């Protein structure tokens, strides 16, 4: 084969053959021409996501929690209890365990402990109390007595003759009253940073209805020792997030402060084993309330967990679940509560 002067030999036959193939009419894609539009799209998505989080951080966090629950196989269900439509979360198989949230919170506030307890072999129910989450918000007094009645109807609706029961903050108050009223329906009870006893409020009830960023920051400081690390825009969005249920919170606070449902000097009648857990850095409800609950209840154990505030199920979920599992594993009538002697107390690390 002869070559003209100045021509270059084709040393790689396959590319040479390919280049001689008929053209489709479209110019060949230059290397990396896809990189710029892909980077632009990714940057745009990142900016949009960041913008959404900046303007609605609590909504974004809630959607992430819901996605986490869906991945864990936790369902979102409704049940009609008399005139009220009540929402609840449920997942898992095994012994039934019912969780009750606190003031202004929802069933999804239990997301961390709920998914962990499902993995430990429990069928876990987390109810949205009347007026909160996706449950109905009727014009009622939102008293602890009313919420206890709702909880009893929920047990009936799920055919729960008895179950383990847990409550956090106001939900602990509801759970304690439920166990006092219907002890045969509670196998074991645990309460976390629970309300229910009289104590001196270092703040007014208006703290739960923030109207300014400063108000919201003050509330966050009461709820968590890590509030100082939260950016100002999260405090601002907290006001918007809490606005739809402000009147419910106000009505519930009025009912609680009226005092008709207080449990002072009533806990001695508690017949079921109780685990009382407190965040050592709780600034909302002092640990002295937990110590007094433990003192009054004959079959109780008090545990205080360091590095956590009132948001213990969020901040210290792993520590809390370890204590709960140890406690629930005890046999009824074993003479022990939560792995320690009846009436023992400790500070967890």
Provide a descriptive summary of the structure in words.
- This protein has 349 residues and is an alpha/beta fold.
- Helix content is 40%, strand content 17%.
- The chain has 12 helices and 11 strands.
- It has helices at residues 13-19, 35-55, 57-71, 111-119, 144-157, 170-181, 213-223, 232-242, 246-258, 287-296, 312-315, 317-328, and strands at residues 75-81, 84-91, 95-100, 122-127, 163-168, 186-192, 274-279, 300-305, 336-337, 340-341, 345-348.
- The strands form 2 sheets. Strands 1-2-4-3-5-6-7-8-11 form a 9-stranded mixed sheet, sandwiched between helices. A two-stranded antiparallel ribbon has the order 9-10.
- The model is unreliable at 1-24 and 338-349 (pLDDT under 50).
Task: Write a brief structural summary.
With 349 residues, this protein is α/β, with parallel strands linked by helices. The protein is built from 12 helices and 11 strands.
Number of beta strands: 11
Structural class: alpha/beta
CATH topology: Rossmann fold
Rg calc: 28 Å
Highest-level CATH class? Alpha Beta
Helicity range of the residues?
Answer: 25-40%
Identify the notable features of this structure and list them briefly.
12 helices, 349 residues, alpha/beta, disordered N terminus, single chain, nine-stranded mixed beta sheet
Strand and helix layout:
Elements: H1 13-19, H2 35-55, H3 57-71, E1 75-81, E2 84-91, E3 95-100, H4 111-119, E4 122-127, H5 144-157, E5 163-168, H6 170-181, E6 186-192, H7 213-223, H8 232-242, H9 246-258, E7 274-279, H10 287-296, E8 300-305, H11 312-315, H12 317-328, E9 336-337, E10 340-341, E11 345-348
Parallel strand pairs: 3-4, 3-5, 5-6, 6-7, 7-8, 8-11
Antiparallel strand pairs: 1-2, 2-4, 9-10
């Amino acid at each position: 084969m002869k070559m003209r002067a100045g021509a270059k030999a084709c040393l790689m036959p396959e590319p040479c053959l390919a280049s001689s193939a008929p053209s489709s009419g479209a110019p060949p894609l230059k290397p990396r021409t896809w990189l710029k539009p892909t980077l632009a799209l990714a940057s745009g998505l990142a900016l949009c996501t960041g913008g959404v989080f900046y303007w609605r951080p609590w909504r974004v966090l809630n959607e992430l929690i819901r996605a986490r629950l869906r991945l864990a196989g936790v369902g979102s269900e409704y049940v009609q209890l008399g005139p009220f439509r009540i929402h609840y979360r449920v997942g898992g198989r095994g012994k039934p365990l019912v969780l009750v949230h606190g003031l202004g919170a929802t069933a999804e506030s239990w997301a961390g402990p709920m998914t962990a307890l499902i993995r430990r072999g429990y069928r876990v129910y987390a109810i949205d109390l009347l007026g909160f989450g996706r449950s109905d918000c009727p014009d009622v007094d939102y008293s602890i007595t009313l919420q206890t009645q709702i909880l009893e109807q929920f047990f009936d609706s799920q055919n729960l003759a008895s179950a383990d029961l847990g409550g956090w903050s106001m939900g602990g108050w509801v759970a304690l009253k439920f166990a006092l009223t219907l002890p045969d329906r509670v196998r074991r009870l645990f309460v976390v940073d629970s309300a229910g006893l009289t104590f001196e409020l270092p703040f007014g009830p208006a703290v739960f209805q923030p109207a300014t960023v400063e108000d919201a920051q003050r509330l966050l400081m009461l709820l968590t020792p890590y509030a100082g690390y939260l950016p100002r825009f999260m405090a601002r969005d907290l006001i918007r997030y809490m606005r739809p249920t402000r009147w419910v919170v106000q009505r519930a606070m009025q009912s609680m402060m009226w005092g008709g449902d207080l449990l002072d000097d009533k806990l001695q009648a508690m017949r079921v084993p109780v685990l009382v857990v407190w965040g050592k850095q709780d600034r909302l409800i002092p640990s002295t309330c937990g110590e007094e609950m433990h003192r009054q209840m004959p079959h109780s154990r008090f545990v205080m967990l360091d590095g956590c505030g009132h948001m213990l199920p969020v901040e210290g979920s792993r520590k809390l679940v370890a204590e709960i599992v140890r406690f629930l594993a005890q046999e009824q009538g074993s003479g022990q509560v939560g792995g320690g002697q009846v009436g023992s107390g400790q500070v967890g690390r």
